[in-house]
Amino acid sequence: MAGHGSSAHAAELASRPGRDGLMSALARWAFISVSLAFLAALLFAPLATVFVTAFSRGLGDYFASFSDSDTAAAIKLTLITAAIVVPLNTIFGLAASWAIAKFDFKGKSFLITLIDLPIAVSPVISGLVYVLLFGLQGWFGAWLQEHDISIIFALPGIVLATLFVTFPYVARELIPLMEQLGNDEEEAAITLGAGGWMTFFRVTLPKIRWGLVYGVILCNARAMGEFGAVSVVSGHIRGLTNTMPLHIEILYNEYAFVSAFAVASLLTLLAVVTLVIKTLVEWRTGYRRRR
Amino acid sequence: MAFRQPSILPGFGLTFGFTTFFLGAIVLLPLTALVVRTAMTDWNHVLEVVFSARALASYRLSFGASLLAASINAVFGFIIAWTLVRYDFPGRKIIDALIDMPFALPTAVSGIALTAVFAHNGWFGQYLEPFGIKIAYTWIGIVIALTLIGLPFVVRSVQPALAEVQRDLEDAAETLGAGRFYVFRRIILPTVLPALATGFTMAFARAVGEYGSVIFIAGNLPLKTEITPLLIVIRLEEFDYGGAAALGFVMLLISFVMLLTINLLQAWGRRRLVGDRR
Q1: B43-277 placed in CATH 1.10.3720.10
Q2: Are A82 and A196 members of one domain?
Q3: pLDDT tier at A21 (50, 70, 90 boundaries)?
Q4: What CA–CA distance (Å, rounded) separates A240 from A77?
Q5: Residues A92 and A46 in one domain
Q6: Can you list the positions of beta strands (E) in chain B?
Q7: DSSP codes, A211-265
Q8: H/E stretch holding B133
Q9: Model confidence over A130-188: pLDDT tens digits?
Q10: Which residues of chain B are within 8 Å of residue A170 when distances are taken between CB atoms?
Q11: B216 contact A CB<8A
Q12: What pLDDT digit, counting tens, does each position of B198-221 carry?
C-alpha cells in the first residue's frame, strides 16, 4: 500500500468510472474536512502547544531548562534505561521470531498471545507486579533488604518495568515479516553447508533489517517514554530515580511549564524521528504490517 | 503427532528455549505473583477493596469513558481511514504517517499537552468556557485523552480492510442502480466490519488501562474523576499491597477477556476474507 507512489494512487482513483458528480465532490470535501478537523483538534493542536509553550519565553529559557542538574540526571537515567532495555528486547525479538516464524510447533498461537500480553495489560499493573515481587513487603523483599540490594525505587526496578512494557515490540514487528518472507533461502543456505549462525547473519538478517530497524526504534521510543509502569516502581526521587517522563510530571505540578514542555519537546522530537524512520522503512520495503 | 514439525533449519532449541525463559522471567512470573498475592490476601479485605464505593465508581468511569472514546474512534477512525484510502489530497502521506503519533508519543507528553489545550485558558478551553463547557478536570477530558490514544488502533485496523473492498462490486452495484447508502451497507460495511470491531476492541482495551495521559487532565477526585489504574497507585502508596493486587487482578481478568475477544474477532475477519475469495 504505502510503498507505491502517490501518482499510482491518483491514477487508480482517476480511473474510477461514474464518480465525478456533484455529490461525489461534496462527499470528498466533507470526508477530508471532517478528518482534518478531528485530527487538528485532537492531535495537531496538542503537538503544536508542546513547542509553543516550550519556546514561549525565548530560546534562552528553553535551553536553560536543560542545564538544571535534576533534568540532566533524568535525561541520563532515561538513556541508561533504554541502553539496557532495547538490546535485551531486540535479542528476545530475534530469538522469538526465529522460533515462531521458522518452525511449526504446537501452541504457537498461544505463545504469540502470551508475547502480546504486556500490550493489553495496564502500565500500572506492569509496575505493580514488580513491587509485589521485590518491594519491601513483596516475596523477595525481606531477603533483598538483608543482602542490601535495592530493586524497587532504584535502577533495576525501572529497567524491569520498562522491559515488561516494551517486551513485545521487536518480536511483533519481526514475526509477521519473517513469516511473509518464508524459509526457502535459509533452507538453501543450510543445504549448501552454511552453519546456523552464518545463515542467520548472511541470509536472514539482511532480509529483515528494515523491519528490525523499525522494531528497535519503536521499542526505544516506548522505553524512553514509559510513564505509568516506571512511575509505580521509581519512588520519584529527584536527581536519582526520575526518568524524563516522571520529571515532566514533577515540573508540571510545580507550575514550571516552560521547563516541563521543554523536556516534553525532546520526547516529542523522538516520536517524530521514530515516525520518520517508520515511513522511510515502509517506502523502502513497500510493506506495511497489519495489526 | 510430534510437538514440532521436522525442519532442516537449526536453532529451534536455542531460540525457543530463550524465548520461553525470557517470557517466563519478565512477564509470566511477575503476573503469577499478582494472582498469588491476591489469593493470599484476606478474602474479606479483597472483597472490601474490589467492591468499595470508590472502586465501583472508578470502574464505571474507566469503562464508561473507554467505551465512549472507542465509539468516537470507531466513527471518526472510519472516516479518517476512508479519507486516506479513497481520496488523494495534498499532504495525504504526511497525515497518514502522523496517525501513528499517539502510539509513539509518550503518554505524559500527550497528557500535559491535551490539558494545556483544553484548560480554561488554553487554545480551545477559552472558547468553550463562556458556554459553561468544562473539559479539563472533568470526565469529558478523560474521554478526549482516551480518544487520542485509541485512534491509531481503529484507523490502522480499518485501512487495509477498506483497501480490500472489491471496487468492481461497487461499480457493478452502482451500474445496476444501487444507491450510495445501499452500496455502503451491503458491500463496504460487511467487508470492513470485522476490522472495525477489532480496532474498536483494541482501542477500548488500551483505554481501560491507560494511566499517563489521563491523570493530568482528569482532576483525580475520588468517586468523580478517579480512574481504576490511579486507584491501584493510591492503594500501593498506602502500602496496601493486597488491595492493590486485588484491583490489579480485576483489571488483569478484563485484559484477558479483551485479548480473547480481539483474537476471536481477527479469526472472524480472516474467515470472512477467505469466504469472499472463494
Answers
A1: yes
A2: yes
A3: confident
A4: 8
A5: no
A6: none
A7: HHHHHHHHHHHHHHH--HHHHHHH---TTTT--HHHHHHHHHHTT-HHHHHHHHH
A8: none
A9: 999 998 888 888 889 889 888 999 999 999 999 999 999 999 999 999 998 889 999 99
A10: none
A11: yes
A12: 999 999 999 999 999 999 999 888
- The cell for A282 is 515502509
A161 and A213 assigned to the same domain: yes
pLDDT 10s digits, B7-48? 889 989 999 999 999 999 999 999 999 999 999 988 999 999
Spell out the domain ranges in chain B.
43-277
Residues A136 and A64 in one domain: yes
Cβ neighbours, 10 Å, residue A236: 15
Q: What is the mean pLDDT of residues A242-270?
A: 95
Q: CA angle at residue B180 from B177 to B182, to 5 degrees?
A: 75
From B104, B230, B244, residue closest to A271, measured CB to CB: B104
Looking at the structure of chain A, the number of domains it has is 2
Mutate to test the interface with B, among A42, A166, A261 (most CBs of B within 10 A): A42
Q: Which residues of B touch A129 (CB under 8 A)?
A: 30-31, 33-34, 248
Average pLDDT, chain B: 90
Across the interface, whether the CB atoms of A121 and B209 are under 8 A apart is answered yes
Domain that includes residue A264, residue range: 58-290
In chain A, whose CA is at the least distance from the CA of B257?
A: A120
Residue type for position A97: S
A81, A5: one domain: no
Residue that is written with C-alpha cell 458528480 in the block: A21
Residue A2: pLDDT over 50: no
pLDDT, residue B276, reads 53
Question: Which residue in chain A is spatially nearest to B37 when comparing CA positions?
Answer: A132
Does B270 reach chain A within 8 Å, measured CB to CB?
A: no
Comparison of pLDDT for B174 and A265, the residue scoring more: A265
Q: How close is the nearest chain A Cα to the Cα of B182, in Å?
A: 15
Nearest CB to A132 within list B33, B100, B259: B33
List, as one string, the DSSP characters of A24-36: HHHHHHHHHHHHH
Of the candidates A83, A84, A106, A111, which has an alpha carbon nearest to the alpha carbon of residue A171?
A: A111
Percent of the residues in chain B that have a pLDDT greater than 90, as a whole number: 61
Question: Cβ(A262)–Cβ(A62) under 8 Å?
Answer: yes
Q: Are A48 and A146 part of one and the same domain? A: no
Q: Does the predicted model carry a pTM greater than 0.80? A: yes
Residues A221 and A79 in one domain: yes
